[in-house]
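User: I'm putting together notes for a lab meeting next week and I want to include a structural view of one of the chains we've been expressing. I don't have a solved structure, so I'd like a prediction I can at least talk through. The sequence is below, exactly as it appears in our construct file.
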Amino acid sequence: MGLFELESRVKKLESRWNKLCCYLRACLGISSTTGDPDLVLNQQGEWVNNGGGGSYYLYSENYDAGTFTPQSAAGLNSIAMSGLGAIASGDYSTAMGTETTAKSFSETSLGSLNTDYTPISATSFEPTDRLLVVGNGGSGNPSDAFTILKNGKTAIGIDNFETTTSLSKLQVNGVVSTSISTINSNTALDSTNITSVILVDNKSYSVDIILPDSSEMIFNGMTGRITIKSTNAYNVLRLITILPFGGELIDNASSFVFTTDYESIELVTDSKDWWIIK
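Assistant: Thanks for the context. Below is the predicted structure for the 278-residue chain, given as structure tokens.
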């Protein structure tokens, strides 16, 4: 055997060895029998034999003795990735982050240590099970920052939102900020200047406010609310008048005039006319 042929065979063996190492890195990690790592890659890039046995789950983190928590993707076609201790036990579920759990069918969990719960089903779609949860817990204290259920109900800052009995589609634990503006002259409201709350300063002049086209305020059966508030005492010489767009009406009237001190109204629309609800 010549030197050239020998070098060629060595290179082929080296290539096969590298491919085998890649395969081992992808396949070896967690023993399903003991829950401990069989072979793990430490921070020095060395494979460490931890003496486990049985089958394996993919584990992508470095092994830190004493604090090791395995990832587990136990559901059918589920994925557990990133972080430490992510568990995807629902079929077609995904858990990403640190100590996150996705227990129901097609659920996704992100972040850190979301709250635990028992889903109605890990194998089929159930409207009140979680669809998405973002955990913001830590130090042994689970917490949910954001949750969407499979029925579309959504929560911000509510733990274990799947237990809700409220019919509200959006539920928030905390104060919700809203947009506010002040006007002191005649103004036609449209998409460029409308806010949820409009303060009207009429201490110097009368102010006419023209509402936007009501058809632009409604989508899929939902409408926003507009609150208009006077910041001054009533003065017959400085009136605040609300006028609808085109031929639309406000409570079946062609206009609405403030007649009391510091008066306010709240308006909604059905896409045809405007209605005062308080």
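A couple of points you could mention at the meeting. The chain has a mean pLDDT of 82. The CA atoms of residues 148 and 154 lie 4 Å apart.

User: Perfect, that's what I needed.
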